[in-house]
Amino acid sequence: MNKNLPKTQTSKNGMVISPHFAASDAGLEILKQGGNALESTIAVASSLAIHYPHMTGIGGDAFWLVYDPQEGVSFIEASGYSGFDVNMSQYEGLKTIPFRGRLAANTAAGAVSAWDLAFKKSKNEWSGTMPESKLVEEAVNSAKNGIVVTKSLSDTLEEKKEELFVDEYFAEVYYPNGNIPKEGEKLVQEKLGNTLEKLGTNGFDDFYRGSLAKDISDDFESRDGLISQKDLSEHHASWNKPLEMKISKGKLFNASAPTQGVASLMILGLFDRWCEKLPQKDSANHVHLLVEATKIAFKHRDKMDTSSSPEELQKWLEPEYLDKLSLELDLEKALPWGENAAPGDTTWFGVSDSKGRIVSAIQSIYHEFGSGLTLPNTGIVWQNRGCSFALDSTHIQALEPHKKPFHTLNPAIALFDDGRVMAYGTMGGDGQPQTQAAVFSRYAYYDEDLSACINNPRWLLGRTWGNSSQSLKLESRFDEELINELKQKGHDVEILKDLDSAVGHAGALVYHPSKTIEGAFDPRSDGKASSF
Hints:
Strand content: 15-25%
Number of helices: 19
Radius of gyration: 21 Å
Helix content: 25-40%
Shape: globular
Structural class: alpha+beta
Number of strands: 19
Low-confidence stretches: none
């Protein structure tokens, strides 16, 4: 073990889980001052945009699941379309969309529109009283006064310097005086702080239809960018119907298209078919069944149109359909695998207030620092989610004007039959459904302690950052007997270091009928479970 593993936290008043300690504390402060779960989540989201800029930001997208004991689960879909003027001719001579630079920044950013919808619901339906300025206050102050650089941030800036330093406006902020910021040093993001302050003063919709939208479009024009003021003004987040699936333990909810939420549900739905003959916890068969279910789910996911309705995707979650698919699971033999996996940097965060209202949220700029394209006056680093598009007109994800790209982002909520409510999620591209399955199965089927569900060794099928192999990657704490058994089943096994970020930065919270809240964060992150 290379660090002391965190313990499950409990509270009766409120809980905030995020992958950065300062963001968790920012959300907690809102709860302490009488704010609700939606208000707290906005504070966490804005804080992460400053403290965790390599993983998330206001130039990205977001998806939220919101649970209200009276209303059930609802879904905020806040992802951006490709620009109205974006088309394949702009990529002539290229086989794929670049990961970095102006051509990678080809979709509108939806994250702030999620804040706006959540703020309006808080004010109009949950009696929220806090102004936008209060909710972004910690983020504004931290951006202007400087954040303390973590090892995660410093390591990412060092590893990706060759790709990112070429953007002069990015380098001006994140490589001050040409240097890589070291762990413990201060990093100031003044222009980004000014932008957040403007959002707090003018309201979150200013990002899309106000003076800030004009500033952003002017910034894009100065960079010969692909996003226009029209792309921003025509963007709207929406309240949508989440996907849902009944299992033996209760009901699971996840995000619908354009996300891979259906895959996350299918994996657990297939595993649930083994609930009466469960393999031993964290055994080779436990891992094997979830990996095999992942292969089946991903083959379905990769056929999905990003414009699919929830009703279309629900068909894959019907009991009869999952019963039939489960026959493909062989306990002794691994299915063939060679799919293209999607890496991705993301932040999951969850909040529960004292009334049992819960938010499970994901906000992302896709790759580390997204496209790297940095807007000179607003300080926003724009996402590169649009590199999910294909430059092949026959492909289901073919690039077109005003089209949503495929998203790996998918926050989860579970309503147990005994009254417990669980919010959980992770960053990690294609690893998200796999880590969700590991965490949820340990908790729901094996009654594992919540922190242990996250702390225990995990796995990843497919490629990840800097590693293009399609192997089954296992953290080194798995014992040799399990590793050998998986090899005998036909898995191409590769060993990762202990507590490797490749398997995601997960988090979970559970609200019990007794009104006790449990929370756990991932030791692989810079996170914290903040409660009072």
